[in-house]
Amino acid sequence: MKPVFFSVLVLLSLINKASADELDHILRNRIEFYNIRPIEKNPPNPNRDLVTLGKFLFSEKNLSGNRRMSCQTCHNPATGTTDRLPLSQSENGKSILARNAPSLFNVGLKTRTSMFWDGRVKYDPKTNVFTTPEEALNGPNPKAREITESLKSALSAQAIFPLVAHNEMLGEVGENEIANAGNNLEAWDRIIERIKKESPTMDPTENYVKLFLKAYPETSEDKLNIGHVGEAIAAFQREEFQSNDSPFQRYLRGNNKAMTVAQKRGFAVFMGRGHCINCHQGSELGKGELFASVATPEWGAAPLVLDRGQGDVLKDIKRNFFYRVPSLVNIKLTAPYMHNGTYQNLSQVIEHYDNVSGMLVSFKISQERQDQMPVKVAVANQQAILDDIWLASQSGLFPELKNRLRLLEREKRYLEIFMEEALTDPKWDK
Question: Could you confirm whether the keyword Signal appears in this record (predicted)?
Answer without folding.
Answer: yes
